[in-house]
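Why predict the complex rather than its parts? Because the way molecules touch one another can change local conformation, and only a joint prediction can capture that. The input here totals 429 residues.
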Amino acid sequence: MEEPTASSVVPPPPGAARRVVLGVTGGIAAYKAVELCRRLVDAGLHVVPVLTEDATRFVGEVTFSALASEPVRRSLWHEPDPIPHTRLGQTADLVVVAPATARFLGTYAAGISDGLLTATVLATRAPVVVCPAMHTEMWEHPAVQDNLAVLRRRGVHVVEPAEGRLAGGDRGAGRLAEPAVIAEVVLGLLQRHPTPQDLTGRRVVVSAGGTREPIDPVRFITNRSSGKQGYALAEAAAARGASVVLVTTVQRPVPPGVHEVVAVDTAAAMEAAVLGQAATADVVVMAAAVADFRPVQVAPRKLSKSDGPPQLVLEPTVDILAELGRRRRRGQVLVGFAAETHQVETRAAAKLRSKGVDLMVVNDVSAPAAGFEHDTNAVVVLGADGSRREVPLTSKRQVADAVLDSVVDRLPAGAAGGPARDQQPRSRS
Ligand code: C5P
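Output of the joint prediction:
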């Protein structure tokens, strides 16, 4: 048989519905893929269901064939099309696999094409979303987590499983994410795809969450930061093609496409992680709420109430952002956040100058539905060049994209980051 070429693939006509391959593998959660299928079709997508042989033991082909835009496909060999293994992947706008079993993740990570679905994900250049579902023990097994880390590094989007009741009646992590959540991820990716890939080849470091400064082994000083804005920035940067390192104090599902997550707790740990990562970064966004002060001494044992109120003596932490400003690499773009309650822009503008950054994102945290813990935010982006951009109340993801638009405007044109840039001399001011 003659090998197909890229040009032999007939593109869908202009204006046609976006094509989504819905891969279903053999797990008990396969029944939830039926609802996902319905939601995607209802959203106006052209859904092509691909079931593994094992999946057909859990759900009937007829159900999917009735709901989807095309009949179920499940084999490399029983198709009228002689080359379904490449055609499906090449013509897809997105591939989503839900549920994705440990076996599927393993074969995909290893690059083994052992059936129509693995062949499809290996033959596509479209975004791939995998939604793992399995028992907690399997989900937590290092082999599974390593395979996921490999897939993430390659840009695969992972919708992490939730905690809840599992097959067999026990509870734990590993339950397939809700179809509504998966559909939202799929629709969001399609909306942004083709996203401007204006951060391709750039290394972006994002910090998120509030630091915790210990008083004794059980108590600490912290703040109300939820980390949501930082996570939205990491996700947006990854969607725009960046290689993203997220330095975080909070535990939230890893945003799709993020390459590396560094967990930290104190300002000192964040300082070490961020300064280390920043040495090779094109962009650093300090969305974290870093403590300005920490207890000078951490009691080795739990302080006792009977000893009376402790006299806490505090000392300043290192201002990481100001230190980044001093160590800035040539062409590196630095972004800070200023969470203020009064004299908002005046105070933020002063920080912009004193810390030596390019952009300061100003957050009036006393405004309704903006700032800490909310899913929405309203900010003003101040530039060191005197620019001022207002982003009215919107989702934190939209705020993230607006901030990144300003970042992209300031990145030097030409070769993106990577090894060559990393070897450039670092300039200090
Ligand atoms: O001075 P202030 O804490 O308001 O500045 C906020 C900005 O500075 C944020 O971007 C925050 O991440 C950063 N910061 C820092 N190190 C500190 C305190 C704040 O990098 N110790």
